[in-house]
Design a protein that fits this description.
The chain is of the alpha+beta class. It is built from 4 helices and 9 strands; from the N terminus they run βααβββαβαββββ. Helix content is about 25%, strand content about 30%. It is globular.
């Protein structure tokens, strides 16, 4: 059964635990100056939409956020799948949901930053399967050997995306 994905409160206790795990892993794998994860208070700020994925029993499986950068640009933030839920398609489902929501909101470009270390290889593969392509740093980011930057250009239809290499489905393969 696919997870239920909905806008949620990043300060709920189970979400705080997942985000705490996320921040711990970021600081364990990257130098502090290369960690760009937002804390739960920042994820509740205006201009940020935060979603959770839960199973039929309400167990938290994963989360992601979309931060507005401008009228047609947004950044994917705090994409995380809980350890017990990995390998079950949760990340792909959350990403597809966020991209569809972005397209419905009129977002044309979704950008993200992730790590270059081996730990982040599954995330990079997920983003690339969804059609994201590498790009230069954006917003306030600067070149950093521990960061890689991606962009995805969304088309008018919510389920489709176009990258610089041509049209691809915004919904990644499971």
């Amino acid at each position: 059964m696919p997870p239920t994905i909905r806008a949620d409160d990043p300060t709920l206790p189970d979400v705080l635990a997942l985000l705490g795990e996320h921040l711990e892993d970021m600081y364990a794998t990257s130098p502090a100056e290369s960690v760009h994860a937002l804390d739960p208070r920042a994820l509740a700020a205006p201009g940020i939409t935060f979603w959770t994925a839960r199973d039929a029993g309400g167990e938290l499986l994963g989360c992601a956020a979309l931060k507005a950068l401008g009228p047609a640009d947004a950044e994917l933030k705090s994409m995380r799948t809980g350890t017990a839920a990995r390998g079950r398609g949760v990340g792909a489902a959350v990403l597809a949901h966020v991209l569809a929501a972005a397209a419905e909101q009129g977002i044309r470009t979704v950008l993200l930053e992730t790590g270059t270390q081996d730990y982040f290889a599954p995330a990079r593969r997920l983003y690339e399967r969804a059609g994201f392509v590498e790009c230069p740093p954006f917003a306030d980011y600067v070149l950093d050997p521990h960061s890689v930057f991606y962009r995805l250009t969304l088309t008018a239809s919510a389920g489709r995306a176009a990258s610089s290499t041509g049209p691809t489905a915004a919904r990644p393969a499971s």
